[in-house]
Amino acid sequence: MKAWLPKNMVIVNIEAWNALSPEIQEIVLREAAQAEKDGWAKAQELADGYKEQLAANGMSVDGPGDQLRDDLLKIGDTMTKEWLERAGNAGQQVIDSYRAM
Fold first, then answer.
1. Contacting residues for 50 by C-beta, under 8 A, at least 6 apart
2. C-alpha distances in angstroms, 3 versus 17, 25, 32, 74?
3. Which of 19, 20, 61, 99 is the most exposed place for a label (fewest CB within 10 A)?
4. Claim to verify: residue 50 and residue 68 sit in the same structural domain
5. What is the mean pLDDT of residues 81-100?
6. pTM surpassing 0.70?
7. Residues 22 and 55 placed together within one structural domain of the fold
8. Are residues 33 and 75 in the same domain?
């Protein structure tokens, strides 16, 4: 159950990235991998803490029912299909990469 999982992203200008030396790029990638690992761990810690607080204050924290889950999945499938119609092969590569994670 994921009551709250904030996410942060860093976008890098490709020209600025390419201007870095390979050594600096390696350092940035290594530190980014560690930051990603630490970030997911902290997000999970926070989510667990938030759920505990909600439960401590009398709120029931449960997963979605079958109907809601199915409806949301259907909506997501429709939105993905519609987006892929506009995004083409490049979009399909994004979806394929995401689904391979």
1. 3, 4
2. 35, 35, 25, 21
3. 99
4. no
5. 95
6. no
7. yes
8. no
